[in-house]
Amino acid sequence: MSAKRASSARSRTERAIVTAAVSVWARDRAATLPQIAEAAEVGRTTLHRYFPEREGLVRAAVEHALEAIGGAIAEAEPHDGHPLAAMRRVVAALASVSEAIMFVFGDQSLLRDVVPTADPALPAPHDPVIELIRRGQAEGVFDDQLSAEWIQQVLWAVSYTAFEQVEQGTLAKFDLTATVARTLERGITAQAGERA
Amino acid sequence: MSAKRASSARSRTERAIVTAAVSVWARDRAATLPQIAEAAEVGRTTLHRYFPEREGLVRAAVEHALEAIGGAIAEAEPHDGHPLAAMRRVVAALASVSEAIMFVFGDQSLLRDVVPTADPALPAPHDPVIELIRRGQAEGVFDDQLSAEWIQQVLWAVSYTAFEQVEQGTLAKFDLTATVARTLERGITAQAGERA
DNA sequence: CGATATTGGATGTTTACAGTTCCACTCTGG
DNA sequence: CCAGAGTGGAACTGTAAACATCCAATATCG
Q1: What is the pLDDT of residues B43-76, one digit of tens each?
Q2: Are residue A80 and residue A177 in the same domain, yes or no?
Q3: Which of B's residues 148-177 have CB atoms within 7 A of nucleic strand D?
Q4: InterPro entries of this UniProt entry (chains A, B) (predicted)?
Q5: DSSP class per residue in B104-157
Q6: What range defines the domain where residue B41 resides?
Q7: Most buried among A175, B48, B110, B163, using CB within 10 Å?
């Protein structure tokens, strides 16, 4: 990489700003730059020095969030083991970067407009998940009557919903993975052999 | 009702503005009033005559959307018949008001901040669905290991996702109800007796 | 310790949108 | 056909946020 080693101070400040932006915008996409500067515990001036234009910070925040998501998914090793077990690991991994997910996927216009503009070499966090789903379909674990893309969307949507519920206290953080996994695996209907 | 019969012109204009607001804001919550005036095919002046403040239009749009959603659900008669059949009717009904749903549920802050402020006698579109879910759980059709509130959130989330997919052409409008119903009923896994 | 980089407060400029006013035009109903 | 309601173009004000500049205080590192 040609990235010149910025002084440690610089890079730490930049990270603080970007992570603060993701965190604040995850909860309020209309938050202003002063709000973000405050959350990052830097002056408005400093923020503007690092990101002369709002658009630049938005792009950096999106890239940072996508990297975090992609990294979490990679750590879950979706290519290994039984597809259901892998899926549970992925859901648990997503929960650890829920802020990033709520930021990027909470505003369709971000994915529509900003991501394509961003670094074209960005890791697409979706791909390994799509691969996992295809593998699961091939092994007869996932429903192959549904398109892999649809299954992936449902995976994101149900996870996202669970993050929101945890956020507002309706769902215990501890139950998150199990609830999402159960819902994805069996839907919302009672199982055949279950007693009412 | 003490609602004095506004001239037909007035009420038609008002409806045009409110429905345009819902439609435009469903796709872009940051859309400006001029954009909405244009979509409604009225002048900016006229819009401001009807809604002197932006906030008023937002509230009217939310109320209009909630009424549409509540009406659609009511028409689906969720209290009658087999819970699964009722659920499918509800999903189909929601699809007919997808714009309203994407508007109200696409921005958490709307539900958090605006709805409570709105007419307190507003029909809560959720309630009949929660009732349906409870009924289904009692009859052993829906999973009673999951909370009714969670099931309802999943119902909304999966439907919402399907609307988005239809919007962007990834899912055929014709397949919407069947896909959502299948996903909700069986999750994303292959059925036991299915052949790979 | 001293040079340089980094920071942030104060202050100013610009832009875009919300909200306002005025008046001429055009429907519509009696 | 004419009176009044309804409409909308144009031009204006106020406000809030984005963006820019200056300089003094402070941190960092050779």
Answers
A1: 999 999 999 999 999 999 999 999 999 999 999 9
A2: yes
A3: none
A4: Homeodomain-like_sf (IPR009057), HTH-type_TetR-like_transc_reg (IPR050109), HTH_TetR (IPR001647), Tet_transcr_reg_TetR-rel_C_sf (IPR036271)
A5: HHT-HHIIIIIHHHS-TT---TTHHHHHHHHHHHHTTSB-TTS-HHHHHHHHHH
A6: 1-52
A7: B163
